[in-house]
Amino acid sequence: MKKIIYKTDQQIESIRESNLMVAKAHEQVAMAMKPGVKTIDLDKIAKEYIQDNGGIPSFLDYHGFPNTLCISVNDVVVHGIPSDYEIKEGDIVSVDCGVELNGFHGDSAFTYAIGKVEQETWNLMKATRESLYKAIEVAIHGNRLGDIGFAVENHVKQRGYTVVRRMTGHGVGLELHESPTVNNYGKRGRGKKLRNGLTIAIEPMINMGVEDIYIDSDDGWTARTTDGKPSAHYELSIAVKNGKADILSTFKYIEEAIKKNDYISSP
Ligand code: MG
Ligand code: MG
Q1: Reading across the β-sheet that carries 231-233, which strands appear in turn?
Q2: How far is the CA of 153 from the centre of ligand 1 (A)?
Q3: Model confidence pLDDT, tens digit, residues 141-173
Q4: Cα 235 to averaged position of ligand 2 atoms, centre (Å)
Q5: What's this model's pTM, rounded to 2 decimal places?
Q6: In the chain, where the domains are located
Q7: Which CATH architecture has domain 9-265?
């Protein structure tokens, strides 16, 4: 395991800038999201937006990943590859985006309901999003990584959902993925201590059914639930700063897009 790179306040501001571009790329994608649109077209929108604004899509060519966005529909947990698939009413669509700007990376993901989704699917999205905020609440100086994992798992377990253990959050900033690994499960008071200057992406990936997933052998990326039930995913990058969690990403632009776009919603 590599060493954790603690960031200066100035570096944290640069990571915030990268995350701002991530958030605005998400906004562009959210505006275009509607039944019938191909996921590859959403990917193009994000790529163009990022490149037009002087950024570099962090995921593109990352370990050979072919696109700018990971777009993960329904039973796809994460790492879905944009394609000719046309999203449709009733789908849930997780969009994950990373941007490198001036040498710093931002990373954030959001799950949308397309039109009306099953109530139980909506509940899964709600619990997943809530678990992210529960985790951020405890991401404070002096707490430990286990407190973050516990906060996520405790919240979703009570509601009958399962945590995907094979996929995790991570340090973020100078690279897309840095130390430490940020599990979505854990024991309170255990694991590495959180210190000022720590920058991490917290990203619960929560399944309605069993926690087990498999990687689609056709493309080597797409992670799916083994039982075919839906999975939800929300992610924000944060810094521990002045003792508290400072959220560097924002869903503000996504929320504005949701207000304008009747086809999409989120709990
Ligand atoms: Mg991400
Ligand atoms: Mg991430």
Answers
A1: 162-163, 205-207, 231-233
A2: 19
A3: 999 999 999 999 999 999 999 999 999 999 999
A4: 7
A5: 0.97
A6: 9-265
A7: Alpha-Beta Complex (3.90)
